[in-house]
Amino acid sequence: MGQETWPRAAVPSVAGDVWHWQLEAMHVVSRVRADLRARIAHPSVSSSSTDDARDGLLLVFEELASNALRHGGGDVRALVVASPAGWLLDLSDEAPEKPPVPAVDRDPSLGGMGLHLVAQLSVDYGWERRPGRKHVWARLPSGLQPIEGFSTHVPEPRAPELPTD
Q1: 160 falls in which pLDDT band (50, 70, 90)?
Q2: Sorted alphabetically, which keywords does the UniProt record give (predicted)?
Q3: How far is CA 107 from the centre of its chain?
Q4: Separation in Å, CA 33 to CA 17, 61, 95
Q5: Dist. CA 108–CA 85, nearest whole Å
Q6: Sign of CA pseudo-dihedral 32, 37, 43, 46
Q7: Measured between alpha carbons, how far is 149 from 124 in angstroms, rounded to an integer?
Q8: Does pLDDT of 153 surpass 50?
Q9: What's the pLDDT score for residue 61?
Q10: How confident is the model at residue 146 (pLDDT cuts 50, 70, 90)?
Q11: What confidence tier does 159 reach under pLDDT thresholds 50, 70, 90?
């Protein structure tokens, strides 16, 4: 049985304010998340997005950042581009040979459902291999503009078959 991966697609080019951080270790993720929360709370951003959209951005950031540190490693970088339509989130690491692999047929209590959550909250997502780096990205809506349809590339998580007596 082959592993399902996220779609291979180049990181989209999006115009907007660019914010970036280095993530040296897992404990840095909460500090960066707090900084991101403060940036999106600014009236110029909060007036053009919904509370749910901003919460979604923070959740997707945390999922992709922790995945980059756990499964990628090396020099991990986070980049967020804030535009009127929403955000582009790009997490890169030094493991281009390790594509993101959503959990399939795993008991949700065992974890590993983060990529499914990212897919549900995103307008589009993918990953790209560049020399020495892997970029895992997601585009998230502002919540105020119509969405043209969510992507459905990731297989639905399924609970394991339970034996019947």
Answers
A1: very low
A2: Kinase, Serine/threonine-protein kinase, Transferase
A3: 21
A4: 17, 7, 23
A5: 32
A6: positive
A7: 9
A8: no
A9: 97
A10: low
A11: very low
Report CA Rg, the chain: 16
Mean of pLDDT over the chain: 85
pLDDT, position 144: 86
Question: Taking a C-beta distance cutoff of 8 angstroms, is the pair 89, 80 a contact?
Answer: yes
Domains defined for the chain, CATH in brackets: 17-141 (3.30.565.10)
Task: Tell me the C-alpha distance between 122 and 35, whole Å.
Answer: 21
Report the distance separating Cα 78 and Cα 137, nearest Å: 10
Which two tokens mark 88?
A: 């582009």
pLDDT (mean) for 124-150: 86
